[in-house]
Amino acid sequence: MDNGLSYGFEWEYYRFDLYLTYTPLDPERNLGGSRFDYFAFGPKVQKDIFILPKAGVSFSTVLHLTYNSENDYEFMGGELQAIQLPNGQPRIPVKLYGQRSIEEFTILIKPEVGVFYDLSSKSRITLSARWGLDLREPSIVIDLNRIEVDGATYQNKYFYSGNYFSTLLGYRHSF
After folding, report:
1. Pick from 139, 51, 77, 151: nearest CA to 103
2. For residues 116 and 6, what is the distance between their CA atoms, to the nearest angstrom?
3. Left if phi > 0, otherwise alpha if psi is -120 to 50, otherwise beta: which for 87?
4. What is the CB neighbour count within 10 angstroms for residue 50?
5. Cβ atoms of residues 55 and 107 within 8 Å
6. Which of 30, 43, 134, 139 sits between 20 and 30 A of 122, alpha carbons compared?
7. What is the DSSP letter of 31?
8. How many helices (H) and strands (E) does the chain have?
9. What are the mean pLDDT values of the chain's consecutive 10-residue runs (175 residues total)?
10. Closest CA to 51 of 116, 95, 109, 1
11. How far apart are CA 62 and CA 59, in angstroms?
12. What's the confidence (pLDDT) of residue 80?
């Protein structure tokens, strides 16, 4: 760190489950949705500005290359999906046709702003907010061009842009 300016590399891992009304059961997990695992790595630059002797604000940005572990998928009507009706009525089967397209590698710009308090010369408490902007959006597209339910046919299309907003309360210890 030089004059409150630091730089280095950052690695992240995050996951989320995507549950939609007409999502097929995942054959590996037997759940009603897909789990997406993202791995991200890239350079980070951060500037700390002290307002008080031990506290201040920080501004940073990260440029991440991300990898999504999920694969493209073809819906061919054989998914074990059903609509559960109230009052114990029989379930209605649902057949899905279409495809799920995944951007395996994406690039994200992640500006961040935070406040910090130094507990000692080597430890810090932070509260920060980060906005992730995906440069190759959308990251995930689920195009269900045919949904068969109880003799009727529908279609739907879902997008996940890859953009997000997060907050973090953390503790850092430097060696």
Report:
1. 139
2. 15
3. left
4. 13
5. no
6. 43
7. S
8. 0, 11
9. 82 72 44 70 94 95 88 76 66 81 90 96 94 87 84 85 89 84
10. 116
11. 11
12. 55
